[in-house]
Amino acid sequence: MTDRLGAGEPRGSGAEAGVRERVREIVARDLRPVRPLLAPGRRLLLLIPIAIAAGVFAPIVYGHRDFEHLGPFATWGLSAFEWIAGLLILAVALRHAVPGRGVSRRFVIATLVGAPAIILLVTIVTFFIEPTRVPPGVAFQYWFECVKWPMAIAAPVLLVASLLAMRAFPTRPGLVGALCGLSAGVLADSGWRLACEVSAPSHVLGSHGIAVLLMAIVGCAAALAIDVVRR
Amino acid sequence: MVQSWRVKPASDEALRDLMVAYQHGNLEAFDRLYVALEPELRGFLRARAHNPQRVDDLVQETFLQLHRSRRGYQPGLPVRPWVYAIAKRTLLMHHRKVRRRESRETTELSAVPEPQVAAAADRLTDRSALVSALRRVPADGRRAFLLHHGRGLSFREIASRLGIAPGAAKLRSSRAGSRLRDLLRDDAGEADD
């Protein structure tokens, strides 16, 4: 072999040559052209339609609260803010999935802390504008519906986002999966908050917030499972 | 593309071209990538692996992981950060596996009772009987046993001295103790007869 890279033939021991031969044999057996992964930004563009669907599904299908009383800011305005935050978390997840291009630990922590903070902020603002509480006697039913449906709406987003993220073979699959789940939960909640007629923080944080948290846990577990199976 | 490899030897630009060719299914490109990256990856892994004997395995696993995730390399980006992130991950997985194995061995061995050899040895009138019995204990176990009971080293210290896991050192010492006890008992029985 010519010395094109200035490295020449490996000068190692027999064991090193043995490793090289083994690796070469496995690679030669499996080698076929592959299409390189799209850049994180382009993969994010692919996810925008499904993210829009997750955001508008609940208010369109299940109806929405009193828009006239709440006004455009507290309805679509805050939902758009939450939706954009969800999309940004997804961008962080897709970027962090690429080995060697991960964002800093501080940035990841800020993202993980920022998502619940945004939900909290939106909840407080909405409650301040129109305080509504869970009718007596149906607290569990309301809680269950507001955990179940956001999770169901977020599931397709999580599925597609996880598949796109895991194709990059992330070095921290659990964290990437958790970020995908978190973003899917936030995107779904941006629409669900318009369909849910209750604005009391105890209900919103205890059900919508739990749904987002569960999505992050499911995303983390799914990504780790994919990683284990793939190894 | 071949010309560009000649122009910038081992530079990241050359590696990028090789990586793209490798993604297109070019085995020669992989060979050259291996030649260019193996020495520095070996050094990186050797510096961080607790057991130098595992470096070959780690190098192999890193390149196989690189092969599995070659689709994930984005053309135009530097190759080394991507490769080193994969190497770091391989190393982390290796450390986790070793820790898990050691923890399991220690847990299993915590139930193994310490052999009561000293009591039997006290009853020996002839020291040569003990030396003779010790000689019949397998060398691996005898060494661990003497380092622990004779010199008072911890199993962690013995492990680092013998290049084995602490759990394995404890197991060897325990087995040697049991073997020694059996031999001394047999010898004592023969003497009584």
Helix content of chain B: over 70%
Quick one: overall form of chain A? elongated
Major β-sheet annotation of chain B:
none
Order of helices and strands of chain B: HHHHHHHHHH
Query: Uncertain spans of chain B, ≥5 residues at pLDDT below 50?
Result: 1-9
Helices of chain A, by number, come to 7
SS summary, helix count of chain B = 10
Apparent shape of chain B: rod-shaped
Could you state the oligomeric state of the chains shown? Answer: heterodimer
Q: Give the number of DSSP strands of chain A.
A: 0
SSE succession of chain A? HHHHHHH
Query: In whole angstroms, how far apart are the ends of chain B?
Result: 87 Å
Total number of beta strands of chain B: 0
List the helices and strands and how they pair.
The complex is a heterodimer of chains A (231) and B (193).
Chain A: H1 14-30, H2 40-61, H3 67-97, H4 105-129, H5 139-166, H6 173-195, H7 201-230
Helix pairs in contact in A: 2-3, 2-5, 2-6, 3-4, 3-5, 3-6, 4-6, 4-7, 5-6, 5-7, 6-7
Chain B: H1 2-7, H2 12-23, H3 27-48, H4 55-68, H5 79-109, H6 117-122, H7 127-135, H8 139-150, H9 155-162, H10 166-192
